[in-house]
Amino acid sequence: xxxxxxxxxxxxxxxxxxxxxxxxxxxxxxxxxxxxxxxxxxxxxxxxxxxxxxxxxxxxxxxxxxxxxxxxxxxxxxxxxxxxxxxxxxxxxxxxxxxxxxxxxxxxxxxxxxxxxxxxxxxxxxxxxxxxxxxxxxxxxxxxxxxxxxxxxxxxxxxxxxxxxxxxxxxxxxxxxxxxxxxxxxxxxxxxxxxxxxxxxxxxxxxxxxxxxxxxxxx
Length: 219
Fold this sequence. Notes:
- This protein is mainly beta.
- Helix content is 12%, strand content 37%.
- Strand 7 and strand 8 form a beta hairpin.
- The protein is globular, with a radius of gyration of 17 Å.
- The chain starts with a strand and ends in a 19-residue tail after the last strand.
- The mean pLDDT is 96.
């Protein structure tokens, strides 16, 4: 799964990469948690936009937004058919930028956090879905979910799932409303192990209250 990640990408990098006009400020975070507002890139009216979305998808048909904490991740194997994600997969796709993510390894009853990133330290883009929900009282919420896939051989010892990370050549195709579903599914595969690395970090990351660059320093 993907339950915590980091983002400290310079805003200029995203602006140039996706040709974004008038983006909001991008605040760095070393401990992004479900339920927070997170940045996402979407194709809206034939141009790319950077927006903040609630992490935890709320389907348009949901009675209330409490369902969101169950839908922080969407499994790639069922994303085309599951009612919670089916419409978003076909019509509301996004990219969620990150520098890395965390996973916990359990040994002898203790959970040790590990930080996972690309070896070249470049940012990564998670395949994501977004939805628009409006409550009976008129509250409007835009929310998102991160798609997960089977772990690659490097990460299997940490967890059996990992976020679906797209290659740069797939970004435009993922965001395009014209891409066929069968082509989209082909992108949701484990990212190559030889391009990634991980290492243990301090247990300070366990608390959402902690948020500094110290969290990603090797323990």
